[in-house]
Amino acid sequence: MDRALKALTVNPAHIWGIADHYGSLAPRSEADLVIWDGDPLEPGSAPVQVWVQGRPASLETRQRLLRERYSPQQRSNPWPPEYR
Q1: Which of 7, 22, 55, 75 allows an S-S link to 18, with CB 3.0 to 4.6 Å?
Q2: Residue 51: CB partners within 8 Å, gap ≥ 6?
Q3: pTM, whole model, 2 decimals?
């Protein structure tokens, strides 16, 4: 597992010559972090939290908003889709 994680993080940073400030979670390093609900290499896994440059990023997507807006469960909603 350690080797697989390094293959996705610090090893590419070494290849690109930026391992002094990317590729690991350490003081004075820049990092983007994704926390998954399972194996990140499995198609069925999804991100639970995403941090970009130390700030949480939204997981809201237009696709999800549209799915919720036009879902069959919304048929009982008296408002037209444009106003939900």
Answers
A1: 22
A2: 31, 32, 33, 34, 57
A3: 0.58
